[in-house]
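Dear support,

Our group has been running a series of protein-ligand predictions, and this particular one with zinc ion is the one our PI (initials K.S.) wants archived with full inputs and outputs. We had some confusion internally about which version of the output was final, so please treat the block below as the authoritative record. The input we submitted was:
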Amino acid sequence: MIHPGSSPRHLKRRRALLLGTLVLLVPAGLAAYFIAVLGSFPGVTTHPSGEAAAGIVEPRFTQPPFGLDEANGYIRLGESLSPERADLPALTNLDPGLLKAVRSAARDARGAGIELGVNSGWRSEALQEWMLTQAIKDYGSESIARRFVSTPESSRHVSGEAVDIGPTDAAAWVEQHGNRYGLCRIYANEPWHFELATTPGGSCPALRTDAS
Ligand SMILES: [Zn+2]
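Confirmed final output from the archive:
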């Protein structure tokens, strides 16, 4: 005797159900995958060079802030500037001593087979303010946001005295050799952030916990 459940009509209905489930599940799975890979904060993604794996998340903004462009020091997500570029305020508005040190470091890093890029340099007050507002929204907490994004009044990016360096191997190279040029990593939670903080060849100050 043939079981009613295995009649062709039931099989067809089952196949349709299975297909329908797949059609619903596959896009949901893809969405989950992209959120996991691209970062869970809307508008913010984790640093592309893998600090997220170490539990460190640098806020990088996927959407350019309205009206704030390259003239404000805005650098698109995933873009890394050669320090040699002389056409962008993110670099040209940096303290000349810092820019010179970064350029020297980049040349020597290249000799060691490492390509050094600037992910963020000088920022206008308006851009810094926007980043802080965005970070507070995305982290859901001003105190967490302030660990990564300073106020326009206190930011060393706004004063032209800080650069964020990528990718990870370049930041690691500068952490190891940067003191030759006076460059020091400043914060324990930001392996990408460097400032002129010693005399060339001197030793760097102890790391601060974070920017807050
Ligand atoms: Zn920084």
